[in-house]
Specification:
Length: 253
């Protein structure tokens, strides 16, 4: 909470702004989807893009992209923070696959459900088939589905090994497949500690408050479409992992 004492006006002002944006996002959901219980995936994605752009505006972001931005298919990315979802969604309409714990996060879990997020219960392997089916349905509907196969976030020093179980739809469906690498910069802080979020949910609020104290967030997202993908999900996981490492290296160079 030291950030609150260092920049009280900035943090409090942005907290009020963030609360207003959350309220507006909830109202706008009714405008996009009405009271429909089964809002189409593309409508949810459009709503999420609009809302993400507004919420990111609080941080005065500077976002760069490299490569062709995907519009549909499966996008596989490294994972550093909850900010990843806002950044990617602001660039292109998409729906996301997230770990089951996110569903119970305060505020964020509520909006994740509104956005049509597919939640993965990695402790119950019997549900993997159902999750894969949900991903396939979204892909068949023409949505862009974003998957973070590391299974958790990291501090960005490396790309963790990929879990292959949810890549099954990419091995047997004729949908476009993309790899992406996301990276951040801070002029007044440490990215690995202050943007990357790789701790438990109990530290979410202090992390967010600290992030609100930063002058601006800089992000770069690199995209690459895979023209030839393995039909074996474990081999595909290795292929995608290697491609994302190449994108990371290319940025460093």
């Amino acid at each position: 909470m030291n950030a609150l004492f260092r920049h009280p006006l900035r943090v409090m002002g942005r907290l009020i702004w963030l609360s207003a944006e959350f309220a507006l996002a909830a109202l706008n959901y009714a405008r996009w989807c009405g009271l429909a219980r089964n809002c189409p995936a593309h409508k949810r994605a459009e709503w999420l893009q609009y809302s993400s752009r507004r919420v990111l505006g609080i941080f005065r972001p500077q976002i760069k992209t490299n490569g062709s931005i995907p519009k549909s298919g499966l996008l596989v990315s490294n994972h550093l923070s909850y900010v990843d979802i806002l950044v990617i969604a602001s660039i292109t309409p998409a729906m996301f696959v997230a770990k089951r714990e996110v569903e119970s996060w305060p505020v964020f879990g509520f909006f994740a459900k509104l956005a049509g997020t597919v939640f993965v219960d990695r402790e119950r392997r019997t549900r993997v088939g159902q999750t894969t089916s949900e991903i396939e349905t979204a892909l068949n509907d023409g949505a862009l589905v974003v998957l973070f196969p590391e299974g958790t976030s990291s501090n960005g020093e490396t790309v963790l090994p990929f879990k292959s179980s949810l890549l099954e739809p990419a091995t047997r469906q004729p949908h476009a497949l993309y790899a992406s690498h996301i990276q951040y910069e801070l002029d007044d802080g440490n990215v690995g500690e202050e943007i990357c979020y790789w701790r438990d949910a109990h530290t979410l609020l202090p992390h967010l408050i600290n992030l609100l104290s930063k002058r601006t967030i800089k992000a770069e997202v690199r995209f690459k479409q895979l023209r030839e993908a393995s039909t074996d999900r474990k081999e595909l996981a290795k292929q995608l992992h290697s491609e994302i490492l190449r994108l990371k290296t290319a940025r460093a160079i």
